[in-house]
Write a sequence for this structure.
């Protein structure tokens, strides 16, 4: 785990600009997208912090496209990101877990050359019990001609096409972790000054995991090769020392702990979710890229998840992400039919 040992105070805005300088042809648009997302996440952090007090608890009552009851903070977080990103002139379209179709940029605003996909508040079912939740985002360059509205073609791109990816974990502290392909870097919010400060530069995830994050309640619904894999991670076949099982049921929290401490997060397909539960475009892909940038790996069971060509906005995928050695074990054991 990398801690920032330098005494210099580096804000996320300054870090983004310094990284931009490494790309002489950069226009600054991507930097602005990241800076705007940092502002939106501070606003969401405020809402999450006050969840118990500001009567935003409890379900909104409506259902989202996933058929899940929307928590009030889901809706609020979605609106915060939309309003922070719709007018900057850098995006030509957006997509959110909370909204069925493509989210167009309002007519009165300039259309930019990027698209943003996001899960505004993942793990929201944990909100009422004060378990850490998170925001996840993915940025792609548009593939359709500049100037017009973005289309599904701009959104349905494989994960290796991402130009930026990140997450925010609203936990004991609020952390913003992102990559633009120049390593994965973590920033911790100092609420006394309202700034994200560099705290985890160049995150490296241990090659071999300490933690196993999987919901074993589904064991009866897994394929036999998945059951054998989980038994191996738990040291039950003598081929690997046992990993500690840590499963919060909040993807960003489980992923973040494993990224820093080393671990394997698995959400296999099961008879209830035959293509897995997690969404490829705005959950699996952004976290996979961050993990790879930190030296880890991510597969869907058969191939590198960033190579999967999406066909639907909200498509799901089986997911195995984390320490390289442990993802390699999954690839080996799941290759067998
Ligand atoms: P299960 C939360 O609803 C979520 O999307 C992820 O944050 C989390 O990892 C997963 O679902 C938990 O799913 O089926 O284990 O409760």
């Amino acid at each position: 785990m990398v801690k920032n040992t330098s005494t210099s105070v580096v804000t996320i805005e300054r870090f983004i600009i310094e990284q931009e300088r490494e790309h002489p042809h950069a226009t600054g648009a991507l930097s602005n997208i990241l800076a705007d997302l940092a502002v939106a996440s501070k606003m969401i952090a405020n809402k999450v912090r006050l969840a118990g007090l500001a009567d935003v608890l409890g379900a909104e009552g409506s259902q989202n496209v996933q058929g899940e009851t929307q928590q009030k903070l889901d809706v609020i977080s979605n609106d915060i990101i939309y309003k922070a990103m719709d007018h900057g002139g850098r995006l030509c379209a957006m997509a959110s877990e909370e909204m069925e179709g493509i989210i167009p940029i309002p007519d009165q605003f300039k259309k930019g050359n990027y698209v943003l996909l996001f899960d505004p508040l993942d793990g929201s079912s944990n909100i009422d019990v004060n378990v850490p939740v998170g925001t996840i985002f993915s940025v792609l360059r548009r593939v359709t001609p500049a100037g017009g509205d973005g289309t599904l073609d701009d959104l349905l791109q494989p994960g290796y096409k991402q130009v930026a990816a990140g997450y925010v974990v609203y936990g004991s502290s609020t952390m913003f972790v992102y990559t633009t392909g120049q390593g994965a870097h973590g920033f911790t919010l100092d609420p006394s000054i309202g700034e994200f400060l560099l705290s985890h530069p160049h995150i490296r995830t241990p090659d071999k995991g300490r933690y196993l994050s999987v919901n074993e309640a589904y064991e009866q619904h897994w394929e036999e090769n998945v059951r054998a894999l989980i038994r191996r991670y738990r040291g039950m076949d003598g081929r690997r020392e046992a990993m500690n099982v840590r499963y919060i049921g909040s993807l960003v929290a489980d992923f973040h702990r494993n990224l820093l401490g080393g671990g394997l997060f698995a959400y296999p397909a099961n008879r209830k979710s035959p293509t897995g539960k997690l969404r490829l475009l705005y959950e699996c892909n952004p976290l996979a890229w961050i993990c790879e940038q930190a030296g880890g790996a991510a597969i869907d069971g058969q191939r590198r998840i960033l190579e999967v060509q999406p066909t639907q906005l909200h498509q799901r995928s089986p997911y195995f992400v984390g320490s390289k050695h442990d993802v390699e074990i999954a690839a080996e054991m799941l290759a067998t039919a």
